[in-house]
Amino acid sequence: MNPSELPSISIILTGYNEEDSIEDAIRSVFQQDYEGPVEIILSDDGSSDRTFAVMQEMVLQYDGPYRVVMNRNETSLGLGLHVRKVLDMASHEWILRQDGDDCSFPWRCRVFAQAVMEHPDAVAVVSQMTRVYE
Description:
four-stranded parallel sheet, 4 helices
C-alpha cells in the first residue's frame, strides 16, 4: 500500500517533571516502524526539572522521517488541560497518546493503523499495556 493511503497519525507525548524517563519515552516514538504520515508532538507542562531540555536535545539529534513539533507551557495546566491543549495542536486524522514515563513498542503505529483500516467506522482504538519495568 502507498504510504499516503495509510492513516495519518499524530503521536502526542506529554511530560511533567519526568526527566528520568522522558528520554526512553521519546526514543520509543522516534523508533516507530510505520511508513504512513506521522507527526510527533512533544509537550512539557511547565516542568521544574530538565524534562523540556531533554526534549530539545533529542529533537536536535533526531534525523528520522517524522515531523516533530514541540510545546512548553510556561506554567503547569494540569494533565487534563495540558492534553486538551496538545490535542488542538494535532494535525493528523488519528491520535496516539503517550505519557512521558511510558514507552511504545516500535510497531505501535503500524498495529494501530491496521486496526483503523480493518474497522473504518471506529472512532477510537484502545490497547493493553505491558508492564516492562517499575
